[in-house]
Amino acid sequence: MIDENWSDGMPAEQVLAEIRQLRTMDRPTHGGRLFAYVYDPAVPGLDALAAAAYAESAHVNGLDPTAFPSLLAMENALVAAAARLLGGGPGTSAPEVAGSVTSGGTESLILAVKTARDARPDITAPRIVVPASAHAAFAKAAHYLRVELDTVPIDPTTLRPAVADVAAAVRPETVLVACSAPSYAHGVVDPVEQIAEVAAAAGVRCHVDACFGGWTLPYLRRLGLPVPPFDLAVPGVTSISVDLHKYAYAPKGVSVLLHRDPQLRAPQYFAYADWPGYTMINPVISSTRSGGPIAAAYATLRHLGDDGYLALTRRTWTAVCTLADAVRATEGLRLVAEPESTVVCFTADDPTLDLFLLVDELTARGWHTQPQLRYADLPASVHLTVTAAVAPRVAEFGPALADAVAAARAAGPVELPSDLLAMAGSLTPEALTPELVAGLAEGLGLGGGAGAPDRMAVVNTLLDAAPAAVRERLLVEFVGLLQRPAW
């Protein structure tokens, strides 16, 4: 599909036509039928505004705020907006809140762990305590930063960690305790107030990962929902993160990491002067940063305003309730958790109803959902991230769900060959060579550079049967097969 002749330049319109053709392979980012990865408010003109703002600052470099004070001003405005929403700023219990703009939630969480680790140079083998439902970015942070990860199990009914278990997991080497508001998988808010109290009693920092829900929970509270305390208004919370490219509806990728005060933020910085070049000083992981995403986020927040976000949250919550009602009305399905944020998560109780086939049938009907594999005592489930764009289409989901359930039942559960199932359960990650995975991918219809097929039930069934470490290795090798140079 891509013209492999790179020796000559191409006219601009031809390049754009090539990109548009490539984009036809993607899931739809607008239209209210994609329940993961993108956040669409369905506000007319917002995309054009964000793109124009991005273009204005695309070549501005965030490396040096003295050279580009416009970017510094916009970053400070975004931090202030996030702080006001999340319990910080003048007149609050966190009046000196300090923050930074990052490229996304993963970078915010890595920096929260890095800051906590570097604040305790006396601890040579640092550890962090997180619920099992915490975002995988905490595991990534622990891996990158060589910090031990202590995972606290969650109750299979409440989907939250027990505060006593969190307290028991804290050791003298613990530098950070984390919790979610809400957890991504199920959309439930951890007992932040009690966990922060445990951390404070132990003299340990407490980070709240509100990357997913930090821009909606305050508005849901204003709409009358019983949102528990979760932000900087909770005394023991020392830092909190929120993604602006999620429910603030800014383009990818902008997140904000807040600390209760500048002293707590200080270890986040990296500085280096012991070389003949300029002294490097970075508040975040990147050095050179395009001002484009920051300007786009600034334009988005300024345009929508507080009242606009309240209206979008109201629309989103109405959609959540309608989707949840559709699940409740469908025989064989049940909600994994009663919605309390912007997530609808459901599973199948009927053994004749294959959840992965159901996902494929919904995809065939234009509804793109996110399957979640089994974990510990939790069944496989289907995750729906609900945005304001879903609201105009939400009435169509119930009939589509009923139709997809009927089709999945008629097709019957996926049955893998017994030898393949046995292999999935007995293989070690080390045994999964690139050659073995390539052969397996080809046998599942994933070979030949064709990418993932439209129907993934067989693949998801195989992954669901494999231990977590084998899943990880399978997917690493498979993605490696996909990410090859286009010669």
Automatic annotation (TrEMBL):
Xref: SUPFAM superfamilies: PLP-dependent transferases (SSF53383)
Obligatory cofactor(s): pyridoxal 5'-phosphate
Any one GO biological process: carboxylic acid metabolic process
Lineage top rank: taxon: Bacteria
Keywords: Aminotransferase, Lyase, Pyridoxal phosphate, Transferase
N6-(pyridoxal phosphate)lysine sites (modified residues): K246
Gene Ontology molecular function: any one: transaminase activity
InterPro entries with a match to the protein in the record: GrpII_AminoAcid_Decarb (IPR050477), PyrdxlP-dep_de-COase (IPR002129), PyrdxlP-dep_Trfase (IPR015424), PyrdxlP-dep_Trfase_major (IPR015421), PyrdxlP-dep_Trfase_small (IPR015422)
Pfam family, one: Pyridoxal_deC
Signal sequence, renumbered to the chain: none
Family assignment from sequence similarity: Belongs to the group II decarboxylase family. Sphingosine-1-phosphate lyase subfamily.
Name used for this protein in its record: Aspartate aminotransferase family protein
Organism name: Micromonospora sediminimaris
